[in-house]
Specification:
- The chain folds into two domains: 215 residues, FAD/NAD(P)-binding domain (3-Layer(bba) Sandwich); 121 residues, FAD/NAD(P)-binding domain (3-Layer(bba) Sandwich).
- A hairpin with a 5-residue loop joins strand 8 and strand 9.
- By secondary structure, it is of the alpha/beta class.
- The strands form six sheets. A six-stranded parallel beta sheet has the order 1-7-4-3-11-21, covered by helices on one side. It has a six-stranded mixed beta sheet with strand order 17-16-15-14-13-18.
- The longest helix has 19 residues.
- The protein is elongated, with a radius of gyration of 23 Å.
Length: 352
């Protein structure tokens, strides 16, 4: 299920006014649209990626997620599509492939956010839902690596089918490396996993499953490091792996290095908001920053007991929306309603 839900994107360079600006269109930012919409608050979202979904869409659209309440398993892409369908009644406006570069307080007490493409958006409330900031993969120091990127070296798996019948080599020792080794093995021609040491940082169950596959001849484990790539015009045919026993050439036409991500907070750090170890401290009542009317939800924030889980971000979005309403509609009474029993909310959601 990929890119099946329609959403409204706005051209770069225009000027817009809304109730709430959301910086970040990952799962938590998308769910914030839902909670705000139930309170009749409109939202515009800004994201540096070219589509909604954040890391779920960019890094693991087909990787299963197991800790969304009430849903035993779904992919990152499915979660994104479900959220887009859920917020469709509220008609959020997206400003994609743009980065928020400036935020200023106007005389009318509203905020004006400006992007690197010249788009300006004004609103009385700003919500930062930028995850850990913009993210870049950590790249191994292999000579000539850049020549193969995008053709036979990939730092994420957007579509598993692209790797069918490939000789795949995965590098890394964490959860991503182990998870994708297990997921891609059934459709690969051959699959190898290379890690610099025999111990792994991944979940024990995944490590045990990998070792069982190795023992059965289903995949190959190399303890060592990749030192050279061999191929032409960006297409690999083999790599050299240095182990304790010397160097060996391994057939490979798809290399997936999974060494984690480098997070860059970017211009958000210059918005005048208090920071703590590149995270934004918030209270746990409203998830508001030290600057009134600016909130931070999801992985970007920090508070005592914080857990970096999508479900935690959903909770934060719900409480943030209550306070956002008080700022945007100061003369209106806030009525708490349940979607299961409120005909008013059901009408907003298009329930028949």
């Amino acid at each position: 299920m990929t890119d099946t839900t329609e959403f409204s994107t706005q051209p770069a360079g225009g000027h817009f006014e809304t109730d709430v600006i959301i910086a970040g269109a990952g799962p938590v930012g998308l769910f914030a649209v839902f909670e705000l919409g139930l309170l009749d608050l409109n939202a515009h979202l800004v994201d540096i990626l070219d589509r909604p979904g954040g890391q779920c869409a960019e890094l693991y659209p087909e990787k299963p997620i197991y800790d969304i309440p009430g849903i035993p398993v779904l992919s990152g892409d499915a979660l994104t599509q479900n959220l887009l369908a859920q917020i469709a009644p509220f008609k959020p406006q997206f400003h994609l492939s743009q980065m928020a570069v400036n935020l200023e307080k106007l005389d009318n007490k509203k905020w004006r956010l400006t992007t690197d493409l010249g788009t300006t958006i004004e609103a009385p409330v700003v919500v930062i839902a930028a995850g850990g900031g913009s993210f870049q993969p950590k790249k191994p120091p292999i000579p000539g690596l850049a020549d193969y990127e995008g053709k036979s070296v990939f730092y994420s798996v957007r579509h598993m089918e692209n790797f069918r019948d490939k000789n795949i080599l995965i590098a890394g020792g964490g959860d991503s490396a182990l998870d994708w080794s297990l997921a891609l093995r059934p459709l690969s021609k051959s699959l190898g996993l290379v890690h610099r040491r025999p111990d792994f940082r991944a979940a024990p169950d995944s490590v045990n499953k990998m070792r069982t596959l190795v023992a059965a001849g289903g995949m190959t484990l190399y303890t060592g490091q990749i030192t050279a790539l061999h191929g032409e015009d960006g297409h690999l045919h083999s790599v050299t792996i240095k182990t304790a026993d010397g160097e060996t050439d391994v057939s490979c036409d798809a290399l997936l290095p999974f060494f984690g991500l480098t997070m860059k907070l970017g211009p958000v750090a210059g918005f005048g908001i208090a920071m703590e170890n590149n995270l934004i401290p918030v209270d746990t009542e409203k998830f508001e920053t030290n600057v009134p009317t600016i909130f931070a939800i999801g992985d970007i924030n920090t508070y005592p007991g914080k857990l970096k889980l999508i479900l935690s971000g959903f909770h934060e979005a719900a409480l943030m929306s209550q306070q956002a309403f008080r700022y945007v509609r100061p003369n209106e009474k806030l009525r708490f309603q349940y979607t299961t029993s409120s005909t008013n909310l059901q009408k907003k959601l298009g329930v028949k």
